[in-house]
Fold this sequence. Notes:
This protein is α/β, with parallel strands linked by helices.
Amino acid sequence: xxxxxxxxxxxxxxxxxxxxxxxxxxxxxxxxxxxxxxxxxxxxxxxxxxxxxxxxxxxxxxxxxxxxxxxxxxxxxxxxxxxxxxxxxxxxxxxxxxxxxxxxxxxxxxxxxxxxxxxxxxxxxxxxxxxxxxxxxxxxxxxxxxxxxxxxxxxxxxxxxxxxxxxxxxxxxxxxxxxxxxxxxxxxxxxxxxxxxxxxxxxxxxxxxxxxxxxxxxxxxxxxxxxxxxxxxxxxxxxxxxxxxxxxxxxxxxxxxxxxxxxxxxxxxxxxxxxxxxxxxxxxxxxxxxxxxxxxxxxxxxxxxxxxxxxxxxxxxxxxxxxxxxxxxxx
Length: 331
């Protein structure tokens, strides 16, 4: 099987490099400045055991058809990625990797259900500069189907991907995506202050705000009768336990957990986009809860406010001071 990975950010580059390293025929589709460096010098990956350089081929657009196309752009860039490459996307299998819950719905207007696979990425990476990625922490690649039952093709795809990453098959990928949305809920706070996860969540007041955002989000989803499904290494009980315990206790757990996720500075996906002067996926993370609240005639004022703040940073390039965040949320 030959594979194209569309999206040369942190996850897309890491996936392309490690699938190539495992022996697959892979091309990475990315932006010109990244593509030039990767083709000339290879892709440099920094991880806990040191550095490695992987020579994966890169292009700015597809030039031929591929058996499998992995979409690794942010959700908000999916339509553009499809439009730029659709000449060679007619008969391929398709795998989505995006955070949030909308990626499969967006691409379903272009592909038949039998072509489409869905996934959740539990490993973390950071795009440092063209040609350089930090692999922050390992994790599973969860694979499933959004629009049909699991089949032999799903298991065949698992065998290909598992040579590069640990792969788990899910019978309810949608329920897991909703839980993963809450795993990503914290990404908004580093984005508004322009700090790493470690710096952000060393502040107890910001940990308290994280808990409040999470409680509001989980409440909206429960009112909407959406079932959260446990991830392999992260159960629904962890999220529900966190939102149901006293705020200070929950904040203390976040304070003790998130700063230790990576030895290297870890910038959430939303902040990584802003640092690259790109529109972030905030509308598909915290904004998804705001949208859901509207649908069920409820409100999510805390998440609505943080979404607006992220958009403000996107538009003017100026981060909020921590004290401004505390004042805005009465911390």
